[in-house]
Amino acid sequence: MGKDIVHFKCHHCNHCCTDVICLPTPWDVKRIAKMTGNNPKDFLEFLTAEDIDGADEDDPTWLEVGDQRYLMALKRDAKTGCYFLNQKTRYCSIYEARPLLCRLYPFKVVESRSGEYKGFVLHDDVGCPRHRDGAVTTKPLYDLYIQDEVNQDDYRELVEVFNAREYPRKKPGDFIKMFMNGFQSFLQKAE
Q1: Domain coordinates of the chain in residue numbers?
Q2: What whole-number distance in Å separates Cα of residue 46 and Cα of residue 171?
């Protein structure tokens, strides 16, 4: 475990861009849309529990539409990977705007039982080869982790509001409208 440094170097195996389902927060989506000019409907999809192996049924970001539940994810294709993976270069085409989850991968924070920060490790249960021939400073990772925690808290609140709203023809894509167009306009249109 590294409190100040984690030994790792990305060798661009593309595991994270082809095999990992990225669940961005609304703030990630807004940043991507702003920096790329892309419509979120073009790069997002909504997945059911059947679409994601090992999906946590208790995840508080499940969107409830009728009797079905969905998680918001970056689109990906089984053969070509993430929507934003450049097929020629095999690099992320939105690297500067990529979701915080992508920025943190393959690192995992370690905390004491009381929640005190101890350091970072590389996830054991992922397909990344976890090359250890480099050094990554943990301070920027910790800052990203804290920002992601704040974003996740806000995300959970948005999902709670979305799930509480019942109206005819409700769709998972309405969640995008909710956070992209502003929370108040969503409430007014849903009534």
Answers
A1: 5-169
A2: 10
Residue in the block written with tokens 């539409």:
65
Task: Say how many CA atoms lie within 13 Å of 190 toward its Cβ.
Answer: 20
- The structure tokens listed for 11 are 């060798």
pLDDT tens digits for 15-66? 899 988 999 999 999 999 999 999 999 999 999 999 988 788 899 999 999 9
Calculate the CA 61 to chain-centre distance. Answer: 11
The phi and psi torsions of 85 (rounded to 5 degrees) equal -80, 115
Beta-carbon contacts of 29 under 8 Å, excluding residues fewer than 6 positions away, are 40, 44, 72, 176, 179, 180
What is the reported pTM? 0.88
List, for residues 102-151, the tens digit of each pLDDT value.
999 999 999 999 989 899 999 887 788 888 899 999 999 999 999 999 99
3-state secondary structure of 162: helix
Contact 23, 101 (CB under 8 A): yes
User: Distance of alpha carbon 115 from its chain centroid, rounded?
Assistant: 22
Q: How far from 124 is each of 60, 62, 81, CA to CA, in Å?
A: 24, 25, 22
> CA gyration radius for the chain?
18
CB 118 within 8 A of CB 1: yes
